[in-house]
Amino acid sequence: MTVKFDIQNLNAWFGSKHVLKNINMKIEENAVTAIIGPSGCGKTTFIRCLNRMHEITPGARVSGKVIFNGVNIYDNGVDPVMVRRKIGMVFQKPNPFPMMSVYDNVAIGLKLNGVRDKKILDAAVRRSLELANLWDEVKDDLKKSGTSLSGGQQQRLCIARALAVEPEVLLMDEPCSALDPIATAKIETLIRELAKNYTIVIVTHNMQQAARVSDYTAFLYLGELIEYGATKQIFENPKHELTEKYLTGKFG
User: Fold this and answer.
1) What is the pLDDT of residues 49-100, one digit of tens each?
2) CATH number of the structural domain spanning residue 48
3) Residue 124 covered by a domain
4) 3-class SS at 182?
5) N or C terminus: fewer CB in 10 A for the chain?
6) Beta strand 199-203 with 32-36: parallel, antiparallel or unpaired?
7) In 10 A of CB 43, how many CB atoms?
C-alpha cells in the first residue's frame, strides 16, 4: 500500500465549535476512499482540510498534520495554492463559470498558471474532457456557455476543469447529490476509471454509492472517526456498533 495522505491528530474548528476531533488515518494512493456519516458530522470539513480550503472560511482553524507525499501541508513555507493545484476539488452542485464557454471553463486553471500557447491549451482541454468522458458530447459545442449543458454534463465539466491542471488527488463533495440516476451512474463509472491514475476521496450521503465506487470507507460521527477500513469489511462486517447502526438505518 502506497500512502498518499497520512493524517495525524487532525482537529478543525469553526470559531469555538470543534468540528473534527483527533482524526488519524492513512489514505491509499490510486484508490477511492468514501467518507460517510450523518449530516453535520464533519465530512465536508474533513476533505476541505486535505487541501487547505477549510482555512479560507473566516474563524476556521486546524491543528495536527496532513502529510501529503511526505510533506505536512500545514508546515510553514508550504504554499496553499500549490497544495490546491495538486489536490483538486469537485463540489456538491456543478459550478461552471457562467460567463465562460465550455473550452474556457476547462482552460481557466492553466491560463491562471500562465499558459498562453494555444496548442498546449487545446491539447489539455481535449485530454481533460476525454478523461471526464465528456469530449464526444461537447466537441462541437466548445464555444457554448458551460451553463448551457445538462446538470450531469456540468458536473463532468467541473471534473474536467479540475483535471486540466494535472492534480494527483480529486476531492469530491457529494458530486452526485444534485443529479438524476442516469447522470449519477455516469459519474460513478467515471470515478472508477479515474482511480486508475488518481487518488479520489468522495463524501457521500448515499451508502449504496459508497459501496459501489469505493475501495475504502471511513465512518465519521460527531466529528470523530468511528471506523475505517476496506469498504467490503465496513459494509459486511462492521467492527463498531455505531457503524452497524448507521448502516442499517437505526440512526442518521
Assistant:
1) 999 999 999 999 999 999 999 999 999 999 999 999 999 999 999 999 999 9
2) 3.40.50.300
3) no
4) helix
5) N
6) parallel
7) 24
Domain count, the chain: 1
> Average pLDDT for residues 168-177, to the nearest whole number?
96
* Spatial contact of 109 and 103, defined as CB atoms under 8 Å apart: no
Within 8 A by CB and 6+ apart from 15, the residues are 59
Residue 24 contacts residue 7 (beta carbons within 8 Å): yes
User: What range defines the domain where residue 89 resides?
Assistant: 3-93+169-247
Give the amino acid at 221.
Answer: Y
Antiparallel, parallel or unpaired: β 216-221 and 224-230:
antiparallel
- C-alpha cell of 144? 457554448
Confidence of residue 1 (pLDDT cuts 50, 70, 90): confident
- Is 165 within 8 Å of 134 (Cβ atoms)? no
Backbone angles phi, psi at 225, to 5 degrees: -85, 110
Q: Tell me: the pLDDT tens digits for 126-135?
A: 999 999 999 9
Closest C-alpha to 170, from 71, 63, 29, 66: 29
Tell which residue, 48, 65, 37, has the closest CA to residue 14: 48
| Coil vs helix vs strand at 199 | strand
pTM: 0.95
The set of cell numbers assigned to 245 is 447502526
DSSP labels for 18-58? EEEEEEEEEEETTSEEEEE-STTSSHHHHHHHTTT-GGGST
Q: What is the rounded distance in angstroms from the CA atom of residue 248 to the CA atom of residue 226?
A: 16
Taken in order 243, 201, 98, 182, the sign of the CA dihedral is: negative
